[in-house]
Amino acid sequence: MARTGLVLWFEEADWRDKKLLGGKGASLAQMTQIGLPVPPGFIITTEACRKFYSSRKAEMDELERQLRGNPPPAVRDEIIKKIWALIDQCDLPAGLMEDVREHMQELERRTGKKFGAADGIPLLVSVRSGAALSMPGMMDTVLNLGLNDNSVQALAKATNNEWFAYDAYRRFIQMFARIVLALDEKPFNDAFDRKSEQFAREAETTYKDELDAIRKLYPEYTPRLDAQPPKDIAPRLWARSLELIKELVGEYKDLVRKMWGEFPQDPYVQLELAIRAVFRSWMNPRAIFYRIANNITPDMADCTAVNVVTMVFGNMGWDSGTGVYFTRDQSTGEDRPYGEFLPNAQGEDVVAGIRTPLGLDELKKRMPEVYNQLIEAGKKLEQVNKDVMDIEFTVERGKLYFLQNRPAKMTPLARVRSAVEMVKEGLLTKEEALLKVDPEQVRRLLYPTIDPKVKATPIAKGLPASPGAASGQVVFNPDDAVEWAKQGKKVILVRVETKPDDVHGFYAAQGVLTSRGGMTSHAAIVARAIGKPAVVGAEAIKIDYDSKTFTVNGVTVKEGDWVTIDGNSGSVYLGELPTVTPELGGWLDELLKWADEERRLGVRANADVPEDAMMARKFGAEGIGLLRIERMFRKPERLEALRRVILAADDKEREAHMKELADMIKPDFKEMLDIMDGKPVVIRLIDPPLHEFLPSSEELLAQIYDLREQREKAQASGDAAKVKELDQKIAELQGLYNRVKALQEANPMMGHRGVRVGVTYPVIYYYLTRAMAEAAAELIKEGKRPVLEIMVPQVSDVNEIRFVKNNAILPALSDVEKEYGVKLNVKIGTMIETVRAALTASEIAKEVDFFSFGTNDLTQATFSFSRDDVENKFMNQYLEKGILANDPFDTVDVKGVGRLVEIATKEGKEANPKLEVGVCGEHGGDPASINFFHGAGVDYVSASPFRVPVARLAAAQAAVKEKLGIRGAVGE
After folding, report:
1. What sections of the sequence does the record tag as coiled-coil (predicted)?
2. Residue 838 to residues 42, 215, 586, 832, 848: CA-CA distances in angstroms?
3. Inter-residue contact 363 to 318 (CB < 8 Å)
4. For 263, 427, 620, 926, which has the most beta carbons within 10 A of its beta carbon?
């Protein structure tokens, strides 16, 4: 054979090599090799796809970067045209089609069928895509390939079912036209709808007697042109259906002729074009968008394989069918078979949601032996793969075939529950279970649900396809969803059924609602994969795209109206309903306990108010790693007191105002320390520039001008008392304005803030420390166990620490100890958020008990970026153009900021072996950053309360990966 090394039989391919075979090819190879019934076939590897693109790769990479900017639809479509024009210039690798032809000839020998046969049994194949990572519905597949005007007659004769043969042919022509020839599908859909409506009318009238007879045996039957009537019960209806399908085949071929040319009759021409089309689908806009949105990089999945598989048919009659089987319930995780079965149908009918499928119980009732074989094989695959499996199958005339298996896309609850239960069943170790759950799924498990106290009646009910409750304004077009979301609007995308091309609308929307489809429809799968609430198959909803409305039970909902969907129950409500956050517990609690046993990193919370502190404690935080006192100053009387401190004319006046302010905020410190009793609370001394607490000069100037106008009117009217009163107010505001102007800085974020305030005004740091210390002392006297840690921000030189310690912090602690008669064991530390602090960590470490990396400011300082400015101005372009791989404010910059963390941690601990090191920036809740901090020797991370469970799991995964020698991403 002319082997290129690019084509492999299922039985010879190493199914563990998903990068080479793609997930679908690997699963077909695996199932073949463990003895499951798989239609014979072969895999064209991802290496062939890379060779296909190699000549134009640089140009296409640049166009893909432009798509990352999510341009308007018109621009997006032009970019796609350019990409596809480049693809048309790409050639299949040398020798590939010769290799494929020889494999097809061998496939003929193995199956006893002939490719494109005019007599005998014709060999038909599916040409299926498959990347290394599951990208549901994002790439293309062609079914029934090999049919032409001659082989369709041979198929009819061989199967003794002319209806089936011509139905397969019309499906093939339409799919080939849409996917391979890239023709507009609307004329084909319109033609089908006309014929199907005609058939339904005639069935209900001319053939009413036969229709009634069918419904007695098959209650789920509806007269559709794509569902074969049972010939033995309804011979006339069957014959009429066949006539209409043959007419439709002719119309389809005419459409292809008008838009492209004669429909290709040579099966090898069909095959070559289909292979090119599957390769091309790697660069479909929806596939590109999916990779961007899910951060799928080339090292994770690079190009698609092509799987050429002998066709088996679920639409040969009522002893045939197709379905999807989950080895456990993908919504709840319960260990019970879950799935959907559609008799007398092909797989595309299930995924597209064009017919409502039945449950697996129906398969069990109709074909018990097939059902038992399916369940047994599913459990075997679950044991081999150590995961809950999603299995596609087809039944052809009572014989079961397996077409694909992959790890199931599950709801967060189901993923956690199944991982825990599989440990108890002995299928997984605790370490393996921890690696099965993506930390982000833990966050999704805390998604809001509709407040149970709300009394609301749903207007419709569908299937609860993806959890969470979401409210938004109704839109019917995915492009509109994107545009409305850009304007800051919350939207719910409403569709009859979704297609892969709609995926950009999924990401823009708060949730998705469809009137058709099941739990394994495209909408359900994608929504679960990206964590969006979804309700599918709400069949009572009638959608009119032209008028941009939907109606249900006499209610009309227009575009822009608010609705709420509940992906937990499948209910749809009018208006915006309040939601609540669920409690931790059950399986998640058990999983997180295992995580706590494995992780080395501590996990604390960033919390500024009592509600945050209570939430953090509930979610398992081991303390507060950052309490920013600035929020305590937002109450009007406190803000006014702080302004008096800032504007004080001398130290004596400043001290009087500061003492007053300290008395105001002491109860807040006491409450926070009490909530976290026995756990550390790190309180940061005042950090923002002082001008942030003052009115703006523009605001004051406007007030002064307004008062002057009032004065002129009072003077003109002769109101001397009013003039005097206004003169006094103007003088006061003028003085305040002059003071504010004097305090203004050219670059306030690098000016008079943080420790510099403590150096210039030690009295501020003294009384802030005193308020904290008095709160702790009072709690000690009440029998509590407060653990106070004081943190100094914005340090860049060790002498700054020495100064504020000796002139403010230590005197305040000493004074409180004497006055209250208690011993305060207070740790004093600093934020490492300036580059110089990181580089001089060995000096600073000798003066403090702990470091806490403020990675937000450290990132700004390292890059010389202002976060607010770069996010709005050029960060997206940096990411699109590949200048930066990730937003450094989302995931820590390992080479720059990370290097500083490593230096400061290592040198700080060498200088002070008792030094504790934490991270309190937003990176403390990012799983990828947590993995880095684990390796950098950090002792704990601190995250927002809702990210505490995420951090607990991510920290455990970092430890497990280190122990097992695993590199790279974990979870789904």
Report:
1. 697-746
2. 56, 77, 42, 6, 14
3. no
4. 926
Please write the tens of the pLDDT for every residue from 872-884: 678 877 877 778 8
Q: Which of 31-35, 396-400, 578-582 has the lowest mean pLDDT?
A: 578-582
Per DSSP, helices labelled H in 717-797 are 720-743, 755-760, 762-781
**For helices 651-675 and 762-781, angle between their N-to-C axes, nearest 10 degrees:** 40
Contact 518, 347 (CB under 8 A): no
Backbone angles phi and psi of 566, in degrees to 5: -120, 100
Q: Say if CB 146 and CB 270 are below 8 A apart.
A: yes
Enumerate helices (H) and strands (E) in the chain, giving the number of each: 39, 33
Task: Return the structure tokens found at 587.
Answer: 């399986």
Q: What is the CA radius of gyration of the chain?
A: 34
Question: What number of CA atoms fall less than 13 Å from residue 955's CA on the CB side?
Answer: 32
Answer whether 550's CB lies under 8 Å from 542's CB. yes
d(CA 646, CA 259): 76
Distance CA 726, CA 704 (A): 10
Return the ∠ at Cα 368 (arms to 362 and 369), rounded to 5°: 140
* Cross-strand pairs, 389: 407
303, 657, 691, 920: the catalytic one is: 920
Among 258, 261, 231, 262, CA closest to 167: 231
Residues in the chain: 972
* Residues 405/407/413/416 CA torsion (nearest 10 deg): 130
Residue 622 and residue 604 in contact, taking contact as beta carbons nearer than 8 Å = yes
Task: Answer yes or no: are the C-beta atoms of 144 and 167 closer than 8 Å.
Answer: no
Q: Catalytic site residue 90?
A: no
Residue 373 burial (CB count, 10 A): 17
Q: Which residues contact 618 (CB under 8 A, 6 or more apart)?
A: 583, 584
Exposure string for 282-294, b = 16+ CB within 10 A, e = fewer: bbbbbbbbbbbeb
CA dist 495 and 462 (Å) reads 13
Strands (E) located in 655-695: 680-684
Cβ atoms of 591 and 437 closer than 8 Å:
yes
Does the annotation count 923 as an active-site position?
A: no
Model pLDDT for residues 908-938, shown as the tens digit of each residue: 999 999 999 999 977 998 999 999 999 999 9
**Annotated catalytic residue, options 49, 303, 504, 522:** 522
**pLDDT for the residue 582:** 62
Task: Output the 3-class SS for 333-370.
Answer: CCCCCEEEEEECCCHHHHHHCCCCCEEHHHHHHHCHHH
> 90-108 pLDDT, tens per residue?
999 999 999 999 999 999 9
Binding residues for Mg(2+) are 833, 857
Write the pLDDT tens digit of every residue in 288-342.
888 877 778 888 889 999 999 999 988 777 788 999 999 999 878 899 999 989 8
The two tokens of residue 108 are: 């003929």
**DSSP letter (8 states) at residue 900:** H
What is the DSSP annotation of 444-466?
HHT--EE-TT-----SEE-EEEE
Indicate the SS3 state at residue 227. Answer: coil
Q: Give Cα separations from 938 to 10, 619, 886 (angstroms).
A: 47, 21, 22
Rounded (5°) CA angle 833-836-841: 85
Q: Name the token pair of 907.
A: 């040198």
Q: Does the reported pTM lie above 0.70? A: yes
Please state, in angstroms and rounded to a whole number, the distance separating the CA atoms of residues 467 and 648: 55
Residue type for position 522:
H
**Spatial distance between the Cα atoms of 144 and 135, rounded to a whole number of angstroms:** 22
Please give the Cα distance from 110 to 118 (Å, whole number): 19
Query: Of 455, 483, 552, whose CA–CA distance to 513 is shortest?
Result: 552
Residue with tokens 């997006």: 76
Helix 208-217 / helix 235-259 crossing angle, nearest 10 deg:
100
